[in-house]
Amino acid sequence: MAGKQRKPDPEPCPKCGQSDSVVPILYGCPTREAETAAERGEVSLGGCVVGDVDPTYACHRCDISFGFQRPELAGAEEARRGWIEHREGREQFTDEEAQPADP
Predict the structure, then answer these.
(1) In this structure, how many other beta carbons lie within 10 angstroms of the beta carbon of residue 82?
(2) What pLDDT digit, counting tens, does each position of 58-97 carry?
């Protein structure tokens, strides 16, 4: 009789050192089950476009992503410290900065 497989413990967060708020990041077009798991805080959705630098974990406590598959391709600061602050993404721009200039 096959038992339920235990999920491996997540990698600890490099910023806070804890693992209780760390979840895997799922990439690709999410299924309804993945969306529900994200709503419960069990996973983080990473988007449909997958690249070489995409991190594998997210820490909900610190609001960071980490665990680069190819750290040498990350930005210099991100590679040095080992994580991406979520506020460093596109959402950090103000409405004025995000809108194209008038011709």
Answers:
(1) 16
(2) 999 999 999 988 878 878 888 888 888 876 654 433 344 3
Number of domains composing the chain = 1
CB 16 within 8 A of CB 24: no
Q: Does residue 98 lie in a domain region?
A: no
In a domain, 102, yes or no: no
User: For residue 56, what are the domain limits?
Assistant: 22-91
Three-state SS for 28?
A: coil
User: Could you tell me if residue 46 is inside a domain?
Assistant: yes
3-state secondary structure of 17: coil
Q: Is residue 43 part of a domain?
A: yes
Beta strand 44-47 with 22-27 is parallel
Backbone angles phi, psi at 67, to 5 degrees: 85, 55
pTM of the entire predicted model: 0.72
Q: Which residues in 58-73 are b (16+ Cβ under 10 Å) and which e? A: bbeebebbbbbeeeee
